[in-house]
From TrEMBL, chain B:
Keywords for the protein's UniProt record, in alphabetical order: Membrane, Transmembrane, Transmembrane helix
Origin superkingdom: Bacteria
Transmembrane stretches, start-end: 61-81, 93-112
Protein name per its UniProtKB record: Integral membrane protein
Amino acid sequence: MTGLLAIGLLFAASMAIGVYGVRATRLTTPDFLVASRRVAPGWNAMAIAGEYVSAASVLGLAGLMLKNGIGSLWYAVGFTAGYVAVAALVAGPMRRSGAYTVPDFADYRLGSQTIRKLCAVIVLVIMWLYLVPQFKGAGVVLHLVSGTPYWVGVVLAGSVVTASIAAGGMRSATYVQGFHYVVKLLFIAVPAIFLIVHAGDDARQEALRMDVSEWSRPLLDLEGSGQPLLATWSVLLATTLGAVGLPHVIMRFHTSATAAVARRVAVGVIVLLGVFYLFPAVYGLLGRVFTPGLVRGGDTDTVTVVLPGEIVPGGWGSVLTAIVAAGAFAAFLSTSSGLLMALAGGLSHDLSRASVPRLRLAVAAGALVAVLLSLPARSVDINVAVGWAFAVAASTFCPLLVLGIWWRGLTRAGATAGLAVGVLAATGAALASVLTDPGPGWLVVLLAQPAAWTVPLAFMVMIVVSLLGRPPEWAERAVLRLHAPGPAAAE
Amino acid sequence: MSGAPRRVRVTSPQTRIALSRRHRPAQHLLPLPVPGSEGDEELAAARALFHRQRRLAARTLGALGLLLFGLSGLLGGLTVLGRVTAWGFPVSWLLLMGASYPLLLVIAVLHVRAAERIERE
């Protein structure tokens, strides 16, 4: 009951901030999509971190750690390292281009409607891959704290996110997400410290016990392949470069005032993420001592919510459970709303003409599809599905943006070929990994986390096909403009 | 018998760009400069700036790759790090959980400072 109450309060607070945001908004299309670039840098970094720290970080990381071992923390390292790449490669130039979305950027740099539409389709693929595990997390947590069937949580999360986004757009989402970062950090960190104190000396020693088992190995493995280094590198490649190409993250940088501010915001995000990622590990380490039963049951994604009740029985335990559950809900709410914004952008801004009513309709349609996809996805590990979303982004938009910004030779044909090859290879491998089981070995890694080969492949196809053609005469100017500081860049 | 000269379509450089882009780009996108509006010197300066930024980005990316692949390779190769403990933690866990984030921050801060210095000059 306390759990439901805490989640209810969180909803109410999010809605209140959302409504305040609506009143502060004039609601033109740029306002709705990117808040007309008047968001303060501090809020912006918090909103990015709030949007980025999803169910994968709050629930999935501890769950995967409990299941597969300490090496799962490489996911967190990769999620954070992504922002180094963002600060170095895309934040400033993307802000200067004036593009709201990746398809917009394709339009600026390559001037092609076909690529714009192809990009919009890829946005949808990434967003749905990313939304499904969020809604799955909502269903599982609500089931745990209130006993409602799995589908109720999924449908509820879908409708709440749709309603708040459709009402206010990006402007209110910025404040809601900044607020959610604080909620997530506090609601995960405070119970974590409480649990460490209450676990007792023996349990603390046991949690830090290093043994010869695979659990203690500081590398991660995928599906028992027996190739931990390859698996770790593939996950690192996907998460780091995937962050560069995530459409909802890229969109956030356009709310910065200038390119220099956008770069600094990316650095701020690294700090916020580094602080946050200290805490999921606590739940993973203690979970190994207190809730080993979850590994056999297969529901390891619930460890963060189950653990407080196991360590602190009685009233305090249920209060802590409620706090953590509310933190987890903040995670899917904020990530899902950011994803839906980008999805709505993809559906209406890029595939047809944008207007605010149509964006609202697109939000609802996008959420509906994600809810329908989430219903049968209960057994998929949150982090594995999120890893696929990152792999697709790393194999499509990452090469498009990096080559588009740093190489004048990129041509329409090259970009189209690379995008098509990247999205087909990455989603094809993920599908194959669901449908088949090739047994231990490197092949299972290359299917379960395909970034190790799909990212180099996509880069190579883009470069080789571009070299076969000739870039248009204005290509160099379009590139140089992205790096020109000062008023010439219309900041 | 050469007759009237062939008709030639005369367009301004800006129109040629617009036509070669085939459609009008969205209003909020950065407009492309008109060819010839900037002098050779300006163009050379913009190129130099671009190349400096690109070298910097490549260096930063190299450092990032070295940190990520180096650290994971180190932890995978030196299993002895798991048997040594510091402050009660196995050293390999400490490196994975604690060392990576500050180093990532250092790489990013150094990059941003260098990039802003290049832009100021």
